[in-house]
Structures are given as C-alpha cells and as structure tokens.
Design brief:
Blueprint lengths: L8 H10 L1 H14 L8 H13 L4 H18 L7 H15 L17 E6 L6 H14 L4 E6 L4 H14 L3 E2 L7 H14 L4 E6 L6 H18 L6 E7 L4 H13 L4 E5 L9 H9 L3 E5 L7 E3 L2 H9 L3
C-alpha cells in the first residue's frame, strides 16, 4: 500500500480483487519474459514490450515505457531481473503522474458549482447507465441531492433502466420517454435541478457512433441548451468506457474526444478482464483524467481512481 492511502480497507480489498485477472495475466507474462535471465538485456526488453502490448497498454505507451527502461539501464549500468517489477512500477507511476490523471480522494464536487452538471457519454453496453446509478448512490451517500436526466431517448430500454436506477437509489429523474428530443430533456432536467436546489444533475445521453457528425451535433445541442440555464454547464463531460474491450475502448475514446470535449473518464468492468493495462494506455494517450473505475457489481464498487493505489495494487505480491 502507498504511503498515503486514500482508500478504506474494504475499498482497497475490492480494488485488489478487481485487478486480480489483470495482475495474474501481467505477472505470468513477465515471469516468462525474464525466464532464464539474471539481467534485463535487449531480449528481456523485447519480451517485455510484447507483454505490455498484449496487456492492452497500447503501442505508443508501451514504446514510451520501454524507452524509459532503456534509459534507466544505461544510467544504472546493471539492472537485475529481480528489480524489474519495482522499476516498472516506478516508471508507470511516474507516467501517470505526468498525465492529467490526479489522485481522487472521494466523490466530491466544487462547492461553487451548484447544481454541478455532469453530462455522461459513451456507447451502448459499456455500463453507462449503471455507472450513472452507482455514481448517484455514491453522491447521495455523501449527503448530496442528485437529479437525473434521461436524455438517451433513442432506446426505450435506456430510459427504463435509468428510471429503475433512480428508484433503486432514491433520486428523482426527469424523463419524457422514448423518441423525445434529448436536448429538451436535458433542458428540463437542469431547470428542475435549479428549481429544486439540487447539488448535482447527471444527464444520460445516447451513444451512437455510426455517424460522428450526428453525434457531434446532438451533444453540441444538448450542451447549448443546458448553458441557457447555467452558463458554464456542463461542468463535466464524463466518458464511460468498458475496460474489458481493451483497444476498442481506446478507439471509442478517439471517437468521443473528436465529437465533444471530454473532461473525465470512467472505466468499467475491470473486475471481469485481464486487460486492466488499458487504464495506463488511455491515461497516457489522451491526457484526460481517469476519474472513476468499476471493480465489481456492488454499488460501492465504483471507486474514485487513485493512481497511487492503482499502481500499488497492480504490483502488490499478495
């Protein structure tokens, strides 16, 4: 565990458990990469490059990490294979520190932004609506008044699912049903949040990627109407990605960052995949803060992303 531990014991255990598949996959491959070697040489680095690539860290980020290891070896002259894990851990932690990803301690929002408006984007099936439900729960646990807006009106299931989550968590939802104008729903939701003196309003949006121009226009329209109620809304554009899809999640990030100004990321389903390395690659490639990660099915298993705890957990030998 890191010197500064932001997570409770239960949440730390949930994180460790959630990263088990990634960790087992990662360290099994590293063990094979250094088999029969006592020092980190060119062959080990070649093998390690393959390990990082097949762990969905991504090409550019992998090359960056390998270059740092080469520089480290050139500087230290001798690096034993037993030291590889600790050095790799240091370099990945440094890489995350250099990006915009910051340690998040809890589910808090700026006191001077009320209601704090979060627009949630992402393709269907990544856990977008579930993330909104869990996020609402966490905010409510912090004593916040939360209101939801069902602006993913192209699928009846999306509206129904959000209503179910609102009832489960016990927060109000503004909905006009399927095929309603998404911007109209968003406008009504933000207006209602202002009238009710809500602390936070979370707007669900459609995740269609088949036409980027349509997506861009739609999200632009939603942002524009919300700003008529609150000039600087939305305060946060949260892109939800499914970590288990690996490189596909990176492609989705490219599409959405081209369509709208994404300010934060949530990576779901880390507990069901060995592709947790995608967190490192996405953070490095897009320089957008990873704010939340999903490490299980329970409400409490959506956690604020903390790079210190993440790297500690990934490299823990427990």
């Amino acid at each position: 565990m890191g010197i500064f531990s932001f997570l409770s014991k239960d949440k730390k255990e949930a994180l460790d458990k959630g990263l088990n598949k990634t960790k087992e996959n990662f360290f099994t491959k590293i063990a094979k990469a250094v088999a029969g070697k006592s020092t980190v040489d060119a062959d080990v680095l070649d093998n390690l490059e393959e390990v990082l690539l097949t762990s969905d860290v991504g090409v550019n980020t992998t090359l960056k990490i390998i270059k740092r290891l080469e520089d480290r070896i050139a500087k230290d002259k001798y690096v034993g294979t037993q030291q590889l894990n600790s050095i790799l851990k240091e370099e990945i932690a440094t890489l995350l520190t250099e990006n915009n990803t910051q340690d998040v301690a809890d589910f808090s929002t700026p006191a001077d932004k009320k209601p704090y408006v979060i627009m949630v984007v992402g393709v269907n099936g990544v856990g977008k609506t579930t993330t909104i439900g869990k996020l609402s729960y966490q905010f409510k646990q912090k004593g916040k008044n939360v209101l939801l807006g069902a602006a993913d009106t192209f699928r009846a299931a999306a509206v129904d699912q959000l209503i179910i989550w609102s009832e489960r968590v016990g927060v109000p939802v503004v909905s006009q049903g399927m095929n309603a104008d998404p911007a109209s729903v968003a406008f009504d939701a933000v207006s209602s949040a202002v009238a009710k003196n809500s602390d936070i309003v979370i707007i669900d949006t459609a995740g269609r990627l088949h036409n980027k121009v349509n997506l861009m226009n739609e999200l632009g329209k939603i942002k524009k109407v919300m700003s008529k109620v609150i000039p600087d809304a939305p305060h946060e554009v949260l892109l939800v990605l499914d970590a288990s899809t690996g490189q596909n999640a990176i492609e989705q990030c490219k599409q959405f960052t081209a369509a709208t100004e994404v300010t934060a990321l949530a990576l779901t389903k880390l507990d069901g995949t060995a592709k947790g390395g995608v967190v490192i690659g996405i953070s490095d490639q897009f320089k957008i803060p990873v704010k939340y990660i999903g490490v299980g099915e329970k409400m409490e298993d959506l956690q604020p992303f903390n790079r210190t705890e993440f790297v500690d957990s990934l490299f823990s030998e427990e």
